[in-house]
């Protein structure tokens, strides 16, 4: 059965997302408000009965001086990716976006291809012969994901950056780390932590670290820690206005869409983190901490509180977001992977982001520009 694609209202879009177990936080209408440099559009696939059966948040980024756009669907669209007739979803999407002046379409199917449990990741880190997680045999793999990538290639889509890209390339992360919560009690979750994690949680409790939820006014405190973290970990920080805009946009859509957590010891905030929620999926979004008083383990304390709160909200997964797939001891990102592995969760690999060049000349020029940035 053919599907019809049309622009839908924010209310229609949100109602459809709310009817699902979960969807990416980058595929809700309010995410468009977080990105003012992009023009946002909500799209819906309509079946023969007039019902919305899939949605997409499209972000359009204009090329300088000409009215042509990169059309980006981060971690979307929200469709039936396992439909044997994928053309009926993607063909009308490409036709619509071409009509909007897009020269390239970039999307990120929210489909997990492979998973590695914590024990497998730990063994891989310890193995001097293992260089990338993607080269390690997975604990689980979904043959439907492999079939999907073959189908996308046959339809003319190209994997962004090639197949060798690690989890921290441009765009959304291909590798993430997730902690399953469904069917587990908080005691089960704590028991699944490794010995170091359990010990650090207890240290924080014994030291009197207090974790509380903050509000808009506390973003200044978060940001001071965030810029310190950026300098320490060698990344370029986003401006404070970005987080202020995110808070206003997301909480206006749903009061629990975004939360801010602060971990304090003796009256000083030592760590802070943001948490995002859509349905049963909770993400640890941004984290920040000072180098002072690290012995009281504020980072473990804040994560444990967020995990417990996610569980109490009925979430089925706590998502630590991106991780690297490198296992190289010299890479400073390996410490972040070790920290996440200590929770006993799973590393997961998505099928990655995919491009469809609607104008090959502009697509090639844009790709060269991005590669030189």
From TrEMBL:
Domain of life (superkingdom): Bacteria
InterPro entries reported in the protein's UniProt record: Acyl_CoA_acyltransferase (IPR016181), FEMABX (IPR003447), PG_Glycine_Bridge_Synth (IPR050644)
Keywords, ordered alphabetically: Acyltransferase, Cell shape, Cell wall biogenesis/degradation, Peptidoglycan synthesis, Transferase
One Pfam family from the record: FemAB
Entry keyword Cell membrane: no
Protein family membership: Belongs to the FemABX family.
Name recorded for this polypeptide: Peptidoglycan bridge formation glycyltransferase FemA/FemB family protein
Keyword Nucleotide-binding listed: no
PROSITE patterns named among the record's database cross-references: FEMABX
Gene3D superfamilies given in the database record: 3.40.630.30
PANTHER family tied to this protein: LIPID II:GLYCINE GLYCYLTRANSFERASE
